[in-house]
Recover the amino acids of this structure.
């Protein structure tokens, strides 16, 4: 029996992606909730829509598959466009766009893929109870009140009728006007739950402009051990060859001392090379990612590189800020590398693949 057997013929009229003419005519007619659910089930609203899912890196890896084979298959078999946001983030946005039937097929394939992953992971585990499939939708905050209902009545109704667990985050996602809606259960329960959420969303369209959530690249901790540089990802230390080279260069310049410190090898003799100065300019709109909240990022760069870093005050009429780096050549090289890494993460974090 195919995996689509017994599931609704159409999944989703989700949140932000309804095409203009269809959106206006759909909302102006405002059918009853029961009529809307009937149309969703019968596939009577074949408009172009968008679902946004928030996933962790491991989940995204499962969707992409080896050499992109899994996501390619999902695109081909569903007919939906599936885009995955830039990859240097702990969280990624998976955007699914297409006609309702195509979106449904893609969404169902994702839910069943996650269930398959859970089953496979349990074969090497002593756990006896099977954890539920969990998906996180990204929903405009202005629609969350309708989803929760008066006194929580609507969300309670959805939970009871579908068997899925539904949680609406209390806070908006950073720098956005969207909230995460977490759905857990069996794939069938999740699909029925999303179908009901779609009905609520169509009955209560977003109010005002929606600022979409864009995951930001995380500042990855770096440690130096045994002459190697490692970035910390979860519980693992991952070797980082580029930083290792710079670290080794710095250690050659300042032998037997921690990076950024100088200790005379003999009294009266300083083994460190003379300090030099390097200047660079950064656009004003990117300086914030270098400084960080309350100066946390620039202090990290100073500590890791051992360099002195000064950022000039903004000057009227100028679109750039000057950064002055002082230290040994190795200190300056490492500081430049870390600053460029921050800039690259900030710029590429706005893109999509």
């Amino acid at each position: 029996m195919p995996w689509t057997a017994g599931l609704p013929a159409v999944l989703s009229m989700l949140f932000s992606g309804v095409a203009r003419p269809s959106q206006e005519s759909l909302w102006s007619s405002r059918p009853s909730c029961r009529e809307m659910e009937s149309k969703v089930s019968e596939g009577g609203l074949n408009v172009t829509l968008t679902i946004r899912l928030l996933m962790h890196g491991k989940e995204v890896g499962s969707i992409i598959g080896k050499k992109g084979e899994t996501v390619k298959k999902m695109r081909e078999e569903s007919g939906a466009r599936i885009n995955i946001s830039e990859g240097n983030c702990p969280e990624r946005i998976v955007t699914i766009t297409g006609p309702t039937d195509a979106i449904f097929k893609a969404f169902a394939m994702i839910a069943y893929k996650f269930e398959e992953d859970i089953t496979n992971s349990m074969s090497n585990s002593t756990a006896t109870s099977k954890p539920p499939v969990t998906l996180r939708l990204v929903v405009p905050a202005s629609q969350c009140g309708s989803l929760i209902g008066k006194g929580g009545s609507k969300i309670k109704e959805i939970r009871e009728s579908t068997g899925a667990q539904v949680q609406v985050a209390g806070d908006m996602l950073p720098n956005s006007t969207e909230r995460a809606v977490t759905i857990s259960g069996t794939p069938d329960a999740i699909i029925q739950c999303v179908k009901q959420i779609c009905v609520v969303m169509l009955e209560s369209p977003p109010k005002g402009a929606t600022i979409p959530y864009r995951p930001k690249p995380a500042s990855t901790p770096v440690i130096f051990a045994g002459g190697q540089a490692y970035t910390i990802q979860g519980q693992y230390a991952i070797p980082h060859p580029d930083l290792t080279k710079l670290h080794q260069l710095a250690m050659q310049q300042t032998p037997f001392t921690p990076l950024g410190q100088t200790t005379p090898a003999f009294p009266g003799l300083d083994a460190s090379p003379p300090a030099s100065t390097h200047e660079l300019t950064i656009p004003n709109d990117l300086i914030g990612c270098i400084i960080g909240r309350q100066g946390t990022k620039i202090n990290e760069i100073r500590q890791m590189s051992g360099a002195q870093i000064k950022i000039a005050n903004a000057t009227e009429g100028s679109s750039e800020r000057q950064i002055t780096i002082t230290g040994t050549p190795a200190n300056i090289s490492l500081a430049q590398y870390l600053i460029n890494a921050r800039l690259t993460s900030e710029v590429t974090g706005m893109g999509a693949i």
About this structure: The two ends are 34 Å apart (CA to CA).
